[in-house]
Every structure is written in C-alpha cells, then in structure tokens.
Amino acid sequence: MTISSTEHVPVLAQELIDLLQLEPQHIVVDLTLGRGGHAKLVIERLSKEGTFIGLDADITQIAALKSMGLINQTHTPQTHTESQARTVLLHSNFDKVGQVLKSLNIACVDRIYADLGLSSVQLLDEKRGFSFQSSTLDMRLDPSSPHTAEEVVNTLTEADLNEIFEQYGEEREASRIAEAIVTSRKTHPINTAKELSEIVRQAKRNHFKKVHPATQVFQALRIYVNDEFGTLKRMLQQIPQLLCAHGRFAIITFHSLEDRIVKNTFKQWEKDGICKRINKKVVSPQWSERKVNPRARSAHLRIIEKI
Ligand SMILES: C[S@@+](CC[C@H](N)C(=O)[O-])C[C@H]1O[C@@H](n2cnc3c(N)ncnc32)[C@H](O)[C@@H]1O
C-alpha cells in the first residue's frame, strides 16, 4: 500500500528515535515541527521532568497543531493528560533557535533535531503556490518574508534566473527556461504556478518521464524565496553552543546540496574536536519505507554528539 500524498507521514521516524536515545528528563528541540509526526513520538518518551520545544517558520503549521490538539502546549511545567512534559510551540525560523532558547532561559539542551523541507500538507495547499497546478505563485514559508516566487520570476534578470535554476535546482536546461520565462513575461506577468510549470514544460527538450518537468525549477525557486541554504547554515553554526555535553543533533535532508552542507559541517566539527559523528555513514530509509512513502526516497539522516 502506498501512503496517500495528502497525509504527512514522518520519514525515518524509527531510525531518528533510536539514534536520539531519549531519556525522560531530556530537554528536546524540534526545529521543524510540521504536523508533529516526529514530535509526538519524542514527547511520548519524556516525563514531567522533560521539556519539549517545537519551532516552525510557517505559522499555519503551529496554528493547526494547536487547534487540532495534535500536541498540547503548556507554558509552565505541569502535568498534562496527553504529555507530561513541559511543551512549548513557537512560530520561529530555526535560524533564531539561539534567541528562542535564551528567551526561555535555557542554557543548553540534550537533543535537537530537524526534518527539512515541507510537509505534504503545505505542498498540496493550493493557496501556497508550491504545487504545479496552483493558481498562485507565492512559495513563502513565512508570509512576512520579503519576496514571493511571483516577484522573483517577474523581476529578476535572465542571468539571475538561470543561476538560481542551475545552482539550487541543478537544472541542466536552466538557460533555455530562464529565456522562456523572460520572453513570456514580456506579454503578460506570470501569476500562477500553473502558468510557470507550463512555460517550463514547453521550454525543456528532455525530461525524465517519472517526474514533472518543472520539479527542479520549483525546488530552486522555493530554496531561493525562503533562503533555505542561508537559514540552514545560520542554524548549524549555533548548534554546538546550544547542546549540553553529550547532547545530540540529528537532521534529515531531502536535497543533495543540503546534505552536502550538513556533511561538511559535521566533518569540520569533528576536526575541531567539538563533536563526534554517531553514524559515519548517512542513514537512508529501508526499502520497505521507500516503497510506501514516496517522500522518503531522497531522505538522508545524519547525527552527531557533542563531546
Ligand atoms: C518536512 S516538514 C516536518 C514534518 C514533521 N517532522 C512531522 O513529522 O510532521 C518541515 C517543516 O519545517 C518547516 N520549516 C522549513 N524551514 C524552516 C525553517 N527555516 N525554520 C523553521 N521551520 C522550517 C516547514 O514549515 C515544515 O512545517
């Protein structure tokens, strides 16, 4: 059975839980709450001496978690019917994790983890413009971010668009696509994801039949609009100072460029004698998970421990 693409199923959940080696009193930070799939498994393992802090840059994710009661939040330590741990959910980009912990008067934490990218719920939300058939072209995780994808495709130069598609999407036909976008917007602005995906489809000479021809262009735009590599690097820089001794940090990536940033950062920390890698080799989903959950196919999990 393949999992329906409308539900968000946490990827590498068992592997993440096993490698985190949680203890009931731990202070744990989830940097990418999403729909709380991983979070619920973590909170279940904490006692009333434990603390769970969850962040998401998308306020609609936090609002859904709260309104659907998927995770119950307690601002002060108290026993709760669902989870005994103190649980704090906050709308914040993870590149502000240091400030968040400071504002909560937390000097260091035992576990931090992130599951990058988007949840299926966001990808399929028509109003967000992430999917090829959307009638908008926004792509911002946080509506207060400065630029929408619509502004990017309608205002950047052909050379800049080419660079974005090449660098962030590893798109081989980047220059043909950038040229087609600039030609098309001369007639009228590109306002929807649907129009953009059609322009890309027509511009491309070759594409693998299994994936939509605009996959890499959409990925590149999303990365650019949300400064995904910048936020990842700024977040990673803060991790060693935020972990207590023997604290662990785990991260799941879905993009080879993101994974490379993580791999090189971990290697550098090891070289500097700050952390040791728990798994020298990246952890990938088992065939059984990849078979039922298409999102899992490109997932990579890496984990380190502070010395
Ligand atoms: C793949 S989903 C996480 C799914 C979650 N682990 C679960 O099991 O339900 C990624 C989430 O991270 C959030 N996100 C992406 N980039 C972020 C950032 N820079 N800071 C905070 N949250 C971010 C997205 O809004 C999305 O909700």
Task: Name the poorly predicted regions.
Answer: 1-5, 76-81
The CATH homology group name of the largest domain: Vaccinia Virus protein VP39
Tally the helices: 13
What is the CATH C-level name of the largest domain? Alpha Beta
The chain-level structural class is alpha/beta
Bound molecules: S-adenosylmethionine
Seen as an oligomer or otherwise, the chain set is: single chain
Shape: globular
> Could you please say which CATH topology of the largest domain applies here?
Rossmann fold
Mean pLDDT: 92
Could you name the key traits of this structure?
seven-stranded mixed beta sheet, disordered N terminus, globular, 2 domains, alpha/beta, Rossmann fold, 42% helix
Task: Summarize this structure briefly.
The protein has 13 helices and seven strands.
Write a structural description:
Helix content is 42%, strand content 14%. With 307 residues, it is an alpha/beta fold. The chain folds into two domains: 13-121 and 229-306, 3-Layer(aba) Sandwich (Rossmann fold); 146-225, DNA polymerase, domain 1 (Orthogonal Bundle). The chain has a seven-stranded mixed β-sheet with strand order 3-2-1-4-5-7-6, sandwiched between helices. Helix 3 links the parallel strand 2 and strand 3 (86-91). Helix 7 (158-169) packs across helix 10 and helix 8 (174-187) packs across helix 9. It is globular, with a radius of gyration of 20 Å. The relative contact order is 0.14. Bound molecules: S-adenosylmethionine. Residues 8, 10, 31-32, 34-38, 55-58, 61, 93-94, 115, 117-119, 141, 231 line the site of S-adenosylmethionine.
